[in-house]
Amino acid sequence: MSVAPPRQLTGTTLVLASHNPGKVREIQELLAPFGLEVVSAGALGLPEPEETGDSFVANAELKALASARASGKPALADDSGFCLAALGGDPGIYSARWAGPDKDFGVAMEKVQAALAASGSPERRAWFTCALSLAWPDGHVETVEGHVHGEAVWPPRGEHGFGYDPMFVPAGHDQTFGEVDSQWKHSVSHRAEAFALLVARCFDRDSDGDRGA
Q1: Domain-embedded: residue 101
Q2: Is the separation of the CB atoms in 37 and 14 below 8 Å?
Q3: CATH of the domain at 68
Q4: Is 79 a catalytic residue?
Q5: What's the predicted TM-score (pTM) here?
Q6: Is 213 exposed, middle or buried (0-12, 13-18, 19+ CB in 10 A)?
């Protein structure tokens, strides 16, 4: 039985299935070389679907499909989270929920630190996971997943990035994601890894490095 090749993204408009300003900004920066008109689901007034999946992939696909069907355009969704070995992978897919209804990640980081302290474990291994799903209005979906490993630190350091970035130091480095600029983060992050996989799979380029028609 033959396997169908990945579907290529064509056209000039892509919907970002996100209402998170930090995430939208980061994905727009990654998409900048492709000459696409990028518009967020928030800017289009599309509702946020309830994230009922039991994995990053399931939630990314759910969000991408919801935006693609509502907008009639291809849509890209990200589901990502902060995972800690001492907490059995939590907060994981519930990373945003730990920030509460006000999406206060200062509060979320304090909850993580409190949970680590309560665990009694000296283990500080941590990783970010990012699932990226590209969906079309007809229901077709292409999904990839990226990771970056490192350790959790306390107190948080840095004013850059968003979410849990100020308490995560990637392996082999001594600065948190909150202390580095976005260009450096894009070279090592979970989202950058997932995006590179998605580009290789679905973004056609000609010999000059531009997107094909």
Answers
A1: yes
A2: yes
A3: 3.90.950.10
A4: yes
A5: 0.88
A6: exposed
Active-site residue (options: 79, 90, 174, 204): 79
Q: Looking at the domain assignment, is residue 80 inside a domain?
A: yes
Whether residue 166 has a cis bond before it, omega within 30° of 0:
no
Domain count, the chain: 1
pLDDT in tens, the chain (213 residues): 567 789 999 988 999 998 888 888 888 888 888 888 899 998 999 988 988 999 999 999 999 999 999 999 999 999 999 999 999 999 999 999 999 999 999 999 999 999 999 999 999 999 999 999 999 999 999 999 999 999 999 999 999 989 999 999 999 999 999 999 988 998 899 999 999 999 999 986 543 344 433
Beta bridge partners, 14, equal 38
Q: Identify whether 111 is part of a domain.
A: yes
